[in-house]
From TrEMBL:
Entry-linked Pfam families: NAD_binding_10
Species in which this protein is naturally found: Streptomyces chromofuscus
UniProt-recorded name of the protein: SDR family oxidoreductase
Origin: domain of life: Bacteria
Domain NAD(P)-binding: 8-132
InterPro entries: Ergot_Alk_Oxidoreductase, NAD(P)-bd_dom, NAD(P)-bd_dom_sf
């Protein structure tokens, strides 16, 4: 079996990818800022990064900061992968990175281009947003007595474990380039998702839809982040909430 390195291997997605690949019999290495023996900040690179990729056949790049530095991190990873002769680099991206002018999306798109031009064998999978992102968002929005939502927005959340299974499948195969996008099972209005969250958590809140403005809002409102033709996910937001929230109701 191929030795596979997962960057961001202690995160929400990376941990699931690592577990899936290890269960499939692969020798695994986990790279993150704090995971020994490969504790590396990819934005800095260094000798530990070279040691982490030495002898690796495939890298699954799940690490991200969202606070900047992802392009620099990818450049360090690509350079180390070249030196080590890594044959396959798999990258997880987001549906709409080429259509929505949001800073984080633009960075993800730039990383895609770095990987495509790296000279390495590569695979890029774009997915819609994970369920847990919506949970964190609604946890924050529901703190006041009124939940303010951006009017006219929809989302298509997907279960992270399903994405992990797809990434593990891709990492076990040959470089495939840009593969088909992966979307959640339903395109839903933000309001319907928020109401499901409120029911699951037992919170009573009024919901107010607030029109916003700007290119980014318009791109989201037009569905640039959605993949309705690739609604291959199975787990719904309500099923996710039943597991994550369950009987732990909030005030």
């Amino acid at each position: 079996m191929t030795t596979i390195l997962v960057t961001g291997g202690t995160g929400t997605l990376g941990r699931l990818v690592t577990e899936r690949l290890r269960a499939d019999g692969h020798e695994m290495r986990v790279l993150s800022r704090h995971a020994q023996p490969y504790a590396v900040d990819l934005r800095e690179g260094g000798t530990v990064l070279d040691a982490a990729v030495a002898g690796v056949g495939t890298i699954v790049h799940c690490a991200t900061t969202q606070g900047g530095g992802d392009e620099e991190a990818a450049a360090h990873l690509i350079a180390a992968a070249r030196r080590a002769g890594v044959g396959h680099l798999v990258y997880i991206s987001i549906v709409g990175v080429d259509r929505v002018p949001l800073g984080y999306y633009e960075t993800k798109f730039a990383v895609e281009r770095l990987i495509e031009e790296s000279g390495l064998g590569w695979t890029v999978l774009r997915t819609t947003q994970f369920h847990d992102l919506l949970l964190r968002l609604f946890d924050s929005l529901a703190k006041p007595p009124v939940v303010l939502l951006p009017a006219g927005l929809k989302d298509q959340p997907i279960e992270a474990a399903e994405v992990a299974a797809r990434l593990a499948e891709l990492a076990s195969g040959r470089p495939a380039g840009r593969v088909e996008d992966m979307g959640g099972p339903e395109v839903r209005t933000f309001e319907s998702l928020a109401r499901s969250y409120l029911r699951a958590t037992g919170r009573r809140r009024a919901i107010v839809n607030v029109p916003l403005w700007g290119r980014t809002y318009r791109a989201f409102r037009d569905g640039g982040h959605l993949a309705p033709a690739q609604a291959v996910g199975k787990g719904t937001f309500e099923e996710y909430l039943a597991v994550r929230v369950g009987g732990h109701r909030r005030a």
